[in-house]
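Lecture notes, unit on protein representations.

Consider one protein chain, 267 amino acids long.
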Amino acid sequence: MAGEGEDRRAQSPQSVTRVIRLLEALCASREPLSLADLSRALDTPKSSLAALLRGLAEEQFVVTSEGAWRLGPGAFGLGSALIEARRRFQSSDLVRDAMRRLADKCEETVLLAVRDHDGQSMTYVDVIESRNAVRFAVSAGDRRPLYATAGGRALLAAGPEDEVRRYLAGLEPERLTKRTETDKGKLAEAIAAARETGVAQTVDQTDEGVTGTAAVIRDATGAVTGVLIIAAPSSRSGHRLAELAELVREEAAAISRNLGYRASGGV
């Protein structure tokens, strides 16, 4: 009877969640983990985890050696399949669905941009336009300089500090509007602030009357694959800067998780 009860528990919806969390913990750790380590990390009884580990071991998703557990060949095979699936979806369904969700929440235009090979500019690769009559309008394929855009500053902030210094050292900024920041010291401060908060914001920097709010998207390797941007008329976004920052931060983080990114600091 005890064995039957254990089998039922192993098939419960809660167990599915525990399996996912267990695999994520093993994935995040550089060293094999003992049953006690996993129990503490997941706040789950060792007896429950032991049953799940036995099932995963049968399918070679995990292997054990000297009392510690690590991912097995089955997990890496699934990972390879998921990476291939991610490649098919990240530029279409997955990211575009997230852009639609964000556009519905903020009721503004949402953009996806990537850094150009020249390292000086970015290109918009996808656009979900706001339904408002007054809105920011841009086309996929349009390019903008990094220093004067929220998306560009977010991309710079996501890179190494020495790369930012080299970029600014070679920069010859142009004044695109009356408010375009061209002082390199202040640009460095804005990029540093974006690195600290994870979000970059600009007001009337590239286009008069346009506020941008941006956060980068990362893949499973931690590499930046693009930047998510909310573009809104400054006339109706001045009082919502904090709200827009939180919305774009959350959605960019959600996309990154779906692409396999896990922040450092795991078990």
